[in-house]
């Protein structure tokens, strides 16, 4: 007990400043007690909710920065304080459907995914028409020159026809917040034996920049007054 008490008393001694090799050190560690406490950011699922929060000035009236982090994530935070720290008040994360790319899947599952998770356009209609004509009980007969596939597809109860697979196809999957336009991008459509269908991305990720620009434009439009008053700043 005496040893522990002695160590405790030694620990109460005043800190000393020591210089070594041109650097200055303290003999004990110091902890700053007046730091601002972190806050738990509000988690929301829509851009409209984020706009409503910013307009409300609910937590404070200081200027805030809105950062479009990605096509599916936006955050709101304040400026650095006197200890170079900042607080994130709101994080918006898009609620998205489950879409499968880069691998084949059964025709029926692909059909449901395409109808439920993609915005209607001409290429979507062409693909739906094509895959609905594929013979389900026979393997797909195909020729492929690297750019265009040709597959044997059923055109009637007892007849077979030749259909061209369009490539690349321009589609608009739901990949960002529903309040903004879904960016169109190119995909490679591939069919394989057993009536398997797959979509493979072919735009090098350019859709992400387009989606983020759409988000920034939406926020700029709906927060125009606050931006003009220099209460809100947007970066992407």
User: Can you summarize the main beta sheet?
Assistant: 5 strands, mixed
What amount of the residues lies in strands?
25-35%
Structural category is: alpha+beta
**Record field, number of beta strands:** 14
Structure characterization notes:
There is one protein chain. The chain has 236 residues and is α+β, with helices and mostly antiparallel strands. It has a domain at 104-204. The chain is 27% helix and 29% strand. It contains six helices and 14 strands. The chain has helices spanning 2-11, 47-56, 107-117, 122-132, 206-222, 224-228, and strands spanning 17-20, 23-26, 42-44, 64-70, 73-78, 88-93, 104-106, 142-144, 149-154, 160-165, 169-171, 185-192, 196-201, 232-235. The strands form four sheets. A five-stranded mixed β-sheet has the order 3-6-5-4-14. It has a four-stranded antiparallel β-sheet with strand order 7-13-12-11. It has a three-stranded antiparallel β-sheet with strand order 8-9-10, with no helix packed on it. Strand 4 (64-70) and strand 5 (73-78) form a beta hairpin. Helix 3 (107-117) packs antiparallel against helix 4 (122-132). The longest helix has 17 residues, at 206-222. It is elongated and about 85 Å long.
Labels describing this entry:
236 residues; alpha+beta; 4-stranded antiparallel β-sheet; elongated
Secondary structure: elements and pairs:
Layout: H1 2-11, E1 17-20, E2 23-26, E3 42-44, H2 47-56, E4 64-70, E5 73-78, E6 88-93, E7 104-106, H3 107-117, H4 122-132, E8 142-144, E9 149-154, E10 160-165, E11 169-171, E12 185-192, E13 196-201, H5 206-222, H6 224-228, E14 232-235
Parallel strand pairs: 3-6, 4-14
Antiparallel strand pairs: 1-2, 4-5, 5-6, 7-13, 8-9, 9-10, 11-12, 12-13
């Amino acid at each position: 007990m005496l040893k522990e008490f002695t160590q405790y008393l030694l620990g109460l001694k005043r800190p000393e400043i020591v210089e070594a090799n041109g650097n200055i050190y303290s003999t004990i560690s110091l902890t700053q007690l007046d730091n601002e406490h972190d806050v738990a950011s509000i988690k929301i699922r829509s851009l409209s909710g984020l706009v409503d929060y910013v307009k409300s000035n609910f937590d404070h009236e200081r200027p805030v920065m809105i950062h479009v982090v990605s096509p599916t994530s936006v955050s709101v935070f304040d400026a650095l304080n006197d200890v170079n720290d900042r607080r994130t008040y709101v994080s918006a994360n898009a609620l998205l459907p489950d879409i499968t790319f880069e691998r084949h899947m059964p025709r029926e599952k692909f059909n449901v995914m395409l109808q439920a998770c993609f915005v209607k356009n001409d290429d979507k209609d062409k693909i739906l028409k094509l895959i609905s004509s594929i013979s389900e009980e026979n393997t797909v007969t195909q020729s492929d020159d690297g750019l265009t596939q040709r597959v044997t597809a059923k055109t009637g109860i007892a007849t077979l026809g030749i259909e061209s697979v369009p490539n690349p196809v321009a589609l608009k999957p739901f990949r960002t917040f529903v309040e903004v336009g879904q960016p169109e991008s190119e995909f490679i459509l591939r069919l394989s034996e057993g009536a398997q269908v797959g979509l493979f991305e072919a735009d090098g990720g350019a859709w992400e920049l387009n989606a983020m620009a759409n988000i920034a434009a939406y926020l700029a439009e709906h927060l125009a007054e606050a931006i003009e008053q220099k209460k809100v700043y947007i970066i992407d």
